[in-house]
Design brief:
Helix content: 55-70%
Radius of gyration: 16 Å
Distance between the termini: 21 Å
Strand content: under 5%
Shape: globular
Protein backbone atom coordinates (compact mmCIF):
# COMPACT_ATOMS: atom_id res chain seq x y z
CA UNK A 1 0.00 0.00 0.00
CA UNK A 2 1.41 3.38 -0.95
CA UNK A 3 -0.29 5.52 1.70
CA UNK A 4 -0.52 3.04 4.56
CA UNK A 5 -3.38 4.44 6.64
CA UNK A 6 -2.83 1.93 9.45
CA UNK A 7 0.84 2.80 9.87
CA UNK A 8 0.06 6.52 9.67
CA UNK A 9 -2.64 6.12 12.32
CA UNK A 10 -0.23 4.09 14.50
CA UNK A 11 2.51 6.75 14.42
CA UNK A 12 3.51 7.53 17.99
CA UNK A 13 4.97 10.98 17.46
CA UNK A 14 5.58 13.67 14.88
CA UNK A 15 8.90 12.23 13.61
CA UNK A 16 7.19 8.84 13.20
CA UNK A 17 4.35 10.43 11.26
CA UNK A 18 6.82 12.29 9.07
CA UNK A 19 8.60 9.01 8.32
CA UNK A 20 5.32 7.40 7.22
CA UNK A 21 4.45 10.36 5.00
CA UNK A 22 7.93 10.35 3.47
CA UNK A 23 7.79 6.60 2.82
CA UNK A 24 4.50 7.19 0.99
CA UNK A 25 6.08 9.97 -1.08
CA UNK A 26 8.99 7.74 -2.13
CA UNK A 27 6.64 4.89 -3.02
CA UNK A 28 4.63 7.24 -5.24
CA UNK A 29 7.86 8.37 -6.92
CA UNK A 30 8.84 4.70 -7.42
CA UNK A 31 5.52 4.13 -9.18
CA UNK A 32 6.36 6.97 -11.55
CA UNK A 33 3.64 9.35 -10.40
CA UNK A 34 4.05 12.94 -11.53
CA UNK A 35 4.09 15.73 -8.96
CA UNK A 36 0.51 16.52 -9.95
CA UNK A 37 -0.61 12.94 -9.31
CA UNK A 38 1.27 12.88 -6.01
CA UNK A 39 -0.48 16.11 -5.00
CA UNK A 40 -3.83 14.55 -5.99
CA UNK A 41 -3.04 11.46 -3.89
CA UNK A 42 -2.17 13.59 -0.88
CA UNK A 43 -5.32 15.69 -1.40
CA UNK A 44 -7.45 12.54 -1.48
CA UNK A 45 -5.66 11.27 1.65
CA UNK A 46 -6.49 14.47 3.53
CA UNK A 47 -10.12 14.30 2.45
CA UNK A 48 -10.57 10.65 3.44
CA UNK A 49 -8.23 10.21 6.41
CA UNK A 50 -8.35 13.67 8.01
CA UNK A 51 -11.78 14.77 6.72
CA UNK A 52 -10.15 17.93 5.34
CA UNK A 53 -11.19 19.13 1.91
CA UNK A 54 -10.45 21.87 -0.59
CA UNK A 55 -6.68 21.87 -0.83
CA UNK A 56 -5.40 23.77 -3.85
CA UNK A 57 -1.68 23.44 -4.38
CA UNK A 58 -1.18 25.08 -7.76
CA UNK A 59 2.30 26.51 -8.08
CA UNK A 60 3.59 24.76 -4.96
CA UNK A 61 6.39 22.24 -5.10
CA UNK A 62 6.13 18.72 -3.75
CA UNK A 63 8.06 19.59 -0.56
CA UNK A 64 5.65 22.37 0.35
CA UNK A 65 2.78 19.94 -0.20
CA UNK A 66 4.56 17.24 1.84
CA UNK A 67 5.06 19.69 4.69
CA UNK A 68 1.43 20.82 4.69
CA UNK A 69 0.07 17.27 4.50
CA UNK A 70 2.29 16.23 7.41
CA UNK A 71 1.17 19.28 9.41
CA UNK A 72 -2.54 18.71 8.78
CA UNK A 73 -2.29 15.01 9.51
CA UNK A 74 -0.21 15.67 12.64
CA UNK A 75 -2.84 18.09 13.94
CA UNK A 76 -5.61 15.62 13.14
CA UNK A 77 -3.83 12.81 15.03
CA UNK A 78 -2.77 15.05 17.91
CA UNK A 79 0.91 14.60 17.08
CA UNK A 80 1.84 18.19 16.29
CA UNK A 81 4.99 19.59 17.77
CA UNK A 82 4.61 22.51 20.18
CA UNK A 83 4.06 25.90 18.56
CA UNK A 84 7.27 27.26 20.07
CA UNK A 85 10.64 28.35 18.75
CA UNK A 86 12.08 24.96 19.70
CA UNK A 87 9.15 23.08 18.13
CA UNK A 88 9.48 25.06 14.91
CA UNK A 89 13.22 24.48 14.83
CA UNK A 90 13.03 20.68 15.25
CA UNK A 91 10.23 20.53 12.67
CA UNK A 92 12.45 22.44 10.22
CA UNK A 93 15.36 20.11 10.99
CA UNK A 94 13.24 17.02 10.36
CA UNK A 95 11.98 18.40 7.04
CA UNK A 96 15.56 19.19 6.01
CA UNK A 97 16.62 15.64 6.88
CA UNK A 98 13.92 14.11 4.70
CA UNK A 99 14.50 16.59 1.90
CA UNK A 100 18.17 15.55 1.83
CA UNK A 101 17.94 11.93 2.96
CA UNK A 102 18.84 10.48 -0.45
CA UNK A 103 22.24 12.16 -0.23
CA UNK A 104 24.95 9.86 1.16
CA UNK A 105 26.67 13.04 2.40
CA UNK A 106 23.94 13.75 4.95
CA UNK A 107 26.11 13.78 8.05
CA UNK A 108 25.60 15.90 11.14
CA UNK A 109 28.35 18.21 9.90
CA UNK A 110 26.85 18.55 6.42
CA UNK A 111 23.31 19.16 7.67
CA UNK A 112 24.40 21.65 10.34
CA UNK A 113 26.85 23.59 8.16
CA UNK A 114 25.48 23.40 4.63
CA UNK A 115 21.71 23.12 5.09
CA UNK A 116 20.76 24.59 8.46
CA UNK A 117 23.68 27.02 8.96
CA UNK A 118 23.97 26.00 12.61
CA UNK A 119 26.90 25.26 14.88
CA UNK A 120 27.52 21.50 14.74
CA UNK A 121 27.88 21.04 18.50
CA UNK A 122 24.74 23.03 19.21
CA UNK A 123 22.83 21.11 16.54
CA UNK A 124 23.88 17.74 17.98
CA UNK A 125 22.87 18.72 21.52
CA UNK A 126 19.62 20.31 20.35
CA UNK A 127 18.65 17.28 18.26
CA UNK A 128 19.32 14.92 21.16
CA UNK A 129 17.39 17.08 23.60
CA UNK A 130 14.35 17.12 21.29
CA UNK A 131 14.40 13.49 20.14
CA UNK A 132 16.28 11.63 22.90
CA UNK A 133 18.36 10.09 20.11
CA UNK A 134 21.74 10.96 18.66
CA UNK A 135 21.49 12.34 15.14
CA UNK A 136 23.69 9.61 13.65
CA UNK A 137 21.60 6.87 15.30
CA UNK A 138 18.38 8.51 14.11
CA UNK A 139 19.67 8.77 10.55
CA UNK A 140 20.86 5.16 10.37
CA UNK A 141 17.59 3.92 11.88
CA UNK A 142 15.30 5.79 9.49
CA UNK A 143 17.45 4.93 6.48
CA UNK A 144 17.44 1.25 7.40
CA UNK A 145 13.69 1.27 8.06
CA UNK A 146 13.02 3.13 4.81
CA UNK A 147 15.14 0.69 2.80
CA UNK A 148 13.36 -2.30 4.34
CA UNK A 149 9.96 -0.72 3.75
CA UNK A 150 10.80 0.02 0.10
CA UNK A 151 12.01 -3.54 -0.50
CA UNK A 152 8.78 -4.88 1.05
CA UNK A 153 6.79 -2.56 -1.22
CA UNK A 154 8.70 -3.56 -4.36
CA UNK A 155 10.94 -6.63 -3.94
CA UNK A 156 12.34 -6.11 -7.46
CA UNK A 157 14.10 -2.95 -6.30
CA UNK A 158 16.75 -4.99 -4.48
CA UNK A 159 19.01 -3.89 -1.68
CA UNK A 160 21.09 -1.62 -3.92
CA UNK A 161 18.06 0.29 -5.20
CA UNK A 162 16.60 0.60 -1.73
CA UNK A 163 19.98 1.80 -0.47
CA UNK A 164 20.17 4.48 -3.16
CA UNK A 165 16.65 5.70 -2.36
CA UNK A 166 17.43 5.86 1.34
CA UNK A 167 20.81 7.55 0.88
CA UNK A 168 23.11 4.69 1.77
CA UNK A 169 25.86 3.01 -0.17
CA UNK A 170 26.03 -0.67 -1.09
CA UNK A 171 27.95 -1.60 2.08
CA UNK A 172 24.93 -0.56 4.13
CA UNK A 173 22.61 -2.63 2.00
CA UNK A 174 24.45 -5.87 2.76
CA UNK A 175 23.00 -5.70 6.27
CA UNK A 176 19.40 -5.53 5.07
Amino acid sequence: MVLDYDRIKAAEDYPGLMFEMYAALVKMEMRGLSEGRIADSFRFFLEVFCQKASYQWKGRDIWEIFEEVTEVCGAFLGLSLPDTKEGSRIKHILFCIYRNIKSPELSLQYLAREVLFMNEDYFGRFFYRCTSERYSSFLVRIRMELAMRLMAFDPDIGAGGAGRLSGRRAVFCQGI
